[in-house]
Amino acid sequence: MTIEHLIKEYEQYLEAALFGRYINLDHIKTLVKKHSAQFDVSIVGKSVLNEDIHFMKVGSGAKKVLMWSQMHGNESTTTKAIFDLLNVLAESENTSVKKFLNACTLGIIPMLNPDGSRAYTRLNANRVDLNRDAQDLSQPESRVLRECFDNFKPDFCLNLHGQRTIFSAGEVKKPATISFLSPAQDDVRTVTMTRKKAMDVIVKMNNNLQQQIPDQVGIYDDSFNINCVGDAFQALNVPTILFEAGHFHEDYDREKVRELIFQSLWVGLVEIAFGDPQGSKEKAYFEIPQNDKLFYDIIIRNAKLKKGRRHQISDIAVQYEERLIQDRIHFIPKIEKISNLSGFFGHREINAHEQLVFAEDNMELSEGISIDFVLINNERQPLFV
């Protein structure tokens, strides 16, 4: 099955039961049960609050790939993409799928942090970042992942995450819609063969993405932290790839990004199964721009602001706070910064043309306040998504 087919027929594989940013265990239970008729599904542990952690074994091939999603509970885009991918792999009579399943075995933890997913928070129920617990293994979810790693003995690991809207793909006005990293495995960030193999797969995925989102792929800084799971597994000489689902224009539900992650999973897995990465694409990997933090959700340019008895011309940066309200994520506009923001970009930009800008009831604007709209020359300008 070619990537061209999957792009053209994506609606056929889209898991319609999952949509938007809020995905918890209740949303995937039925899907896990559905796929248990075809794949080997087991409960490999419990969360702090006694929620099930599932492990799905797919395929029977010699190449083994371990992947996990929602280690951070509020990073759900990759979970949606996993279930899209499972719909492809369920077509076991398809010649390409059958060939893949005979070559590769996937071990999938679709939701490592079900407590954080339910609360829509990065942390687990003990308020621990599981991606800083790779050595202490202080949390039950961390121990589950490490036990799966030790028992499954993967040849590759895919560490699936989501990133904020602040990231740019380098120092340009291009959002980092997808980001990758081949983590370091020592303090001096030696480019080992293990890292090079991960780089090969990233380059392959990037080549596909550049045809659809040119210049919107970034890589993360590879500073080493042995407490991070990706660094820890890389240090054990298992090629590990960090995926970060980011922002696409007006895609705050991350449905377009979900599709791009789905494509990347397929392209990456096919490369692992059949491409036999040999560590030859290091140069191309380092040509991918490194992420920078140059974006805000909204920038209001050239605003005249009242400061006591004086006025000043400045820019206003608005960042959305993601808040769970009645099982739905609401994007609350909040003033992040008031300054000269000429070196920054907004996913949405409003030019006030040096007109007076106020909040409701002519309240002066200040950093840290949440507002639904601003008044520009007494004309209401909504700030919602």
Automatic annotation (TrEMBL):
Obligatory cofactor(s): Zn(2+)
One Pfam family here: Peptidase_M14
Record's keyword annotation contains Transmembrane: no
Domain called Peptidase M14: residue spans: 9-385
Residue numbers annotated as active site: E364
InterPro entries, alphabetized: Peptidase_M14
Keywords, ordered alphabetically: Hydrolase, Metalloprotease, Protease, Zinc
Similarity comment text for this entry: Belongs to the peptidase M14 family.
The protein's name: Peptidase M14
Taxonomic source organism: Gelidibacter pelagius
Lineage, top ranks: Bacteria, Pseudomonadati, Bacteroidota, Flavobacteriia, Flavobacteriales
